[in-house]
Fold Short-chain dehydrogenase/reductase.
Amino acid sequence: MSGKKERNKERREKRLQEISLLRTIPYSDHQRWWSKETIAVVTGANRGIGFEIAKQLAGHGLTVILTSRDTSVGNEAAKVIQEMGFNLDVHRLDILDSESISAFIDWIKHKYGGVDILVSNAGVNYNLGYDNSVEFARRVIETNYYGTKNMIKAMIPVMRPSAVGARIVNVSSRLGRLNGRRNRIQDANLREKLTNLETLSEELIDRTVSFFLQQVEDETWQSGGWPQTFTDYSVSKLAVNAYTRLLAKELSDRPQGEKIYVNCYCPGWVKTAMTGWQGNIPPEVAADTGVWLALLSDQAITGKFFAERREINF
Ligand code: NDP
């Protein structure tokens, strides 16, 4: 292993040890703004990182709604957490299906009156190792970007006003960094437009992902200057990151008492089905930054991107 790789590995291991330690420190009474009346929804929570986020939030004493696109798998996963004595409910939710989203929103409004936290975790990736197939690009973009966005839009009207503010946490990826040193969009002009909050718009994000999908269809995407690693997935997460910043800006106009804070984070390379269990960190550690963001008592944080509880650049 090269010296640089070795140092990076050491740094990552040290940070993971710090995170393990931070996880053992209980929240103090003045930090605990939540109670069992606080409702947190986690998408794609039947396994992997989503399951861990649901378990940890429930462990902190919130009421968690574990959602899953497969009812019986969701019920089985929920049972595991319920048997730990935590408050956890379960409901079907497929973020690709607008009827499933509406049915979920109706149910939650009727049963709980509203929601305080949304963790948008559901996602797909069909590449492993050195693969870079775009065979499922449309599904990846539809799920990771449009599904996440549609779910957030449906959820905002049922997010409850509160003094501490409601929270949205999007589980994203460093692969979607706009200005990373590697794996970024080559077109500096497009990067600048997507980076600058004055020029960033939902239409620009949608247009960017549509252009990518058009190039996939035309089989010209390889020379299109797109990220080089897991291209479809990277474009989908780039869109999630850009949408997080845009939404934070749009939501910042809301009056005090009706604030909604929205951030995203990269969980690292995680041992889950998505990586064929090849990742280097366990889901319980990967869930940590998402849980921490959902429970932040510092209300000023919105529109940011985190990894291992530290802010990173988009
Ligand atoms: P998993 O594949 O283990 O879990 C993904 C979850 O998303 C599953 O519960 C899956 O449901 C669900 N899901 C997929 N499509 C939909 C849909 N249309 N509607 C509702 N739920 C859906 O992956 P991870 O736990 O690793 O990934 C969780 C998140 O973390 C994803 O957003 C991923 O992109 C992100 N991430 C993961 C990394 C990693 O190294 N693992 C790295 C960076 C980011 P089902 O079981 O039915 O398929």
User: Anything to note?
Assistant: The chain has ten helices and eight strands. The radius of gyration is 19 Å. Residues 43-44, 46-50, 69-70, 93-96, 121-125, 143, 147, 171, 173, 266-267, 269-270, 272-275, 279 surround NDP (CB under 6 Å). The mean pLDDT is 96.
